[in-house]
Amino acid sequence: MNDPHLLYRVKDGVACFTINREKQRNAISMEALDLFLRHLDEASENDAVRVVCVTGAGNRTFCAGADLGAGMDESDGMTAFRKYAKLLKKLTGFPKPTVARVNGSCVAGGTGFMLACDIVIAGSKATFGTPEVNVGLFPMMIGALIFRNVLRKKAMEMVLLGEKLTAEQALEMGLITRMTDPDDLDTEVDKVLNVLVKKSPIGMKIGKDAFYAAADMPFEQALDLLAEKLSDVVATRDAREGVLAYLEKREPLFSGK
What pTM does this model have? Predict the structure, then answer.
């Protein structure tokens, strides 16, 4: 679907979300938030979708966060903040694998979209940061994701200084998972997406749900939960197909059941 705020396309098992405000540095709008939430629900229910990819239009900016010139003083500001928080929760807990394609500058709320994805692939010229402190704000909701991905001291340095980070620094900190030459970004992203669409949908769903639930559990409680969820995975048709394919030395054909 083409829209001046968000593009949504499903092709070859991949649902691609493209923030479509290149002239505004892909700053997120209320309309984009609503479309994001709606299409994530569609992608979740669509069996043809095996993986989600999130990116920004053009080749300069992934996402510049919220549009500071639109609605910051309006009475419904809290509505927008809660909607953004809802989107981060939905994307983080999404039942299918998610990949962020970082094609340029990724700052402020864009950092939230990026960190909410399972895998983050960035071009080597991409830049990162949380500059909210420089305009008297603070990266509140995305802080929940930053502190789950980056060591606490490095996270505090990042949010308090508000400095621009290179892709190399982001990789070293754990903000991104892969870095590639900008000319090779699409090739690298497609390679990862093509691997993911061939995996068992039900196995990854159970696994992601289990990891998300166990993340903040005490160690022994987490092990008990994961043992229970492993039993659920073993009972699926896909698990039986995967083992049989391995024994027969062929590629498995997963049905998602």
Answer: 0.92
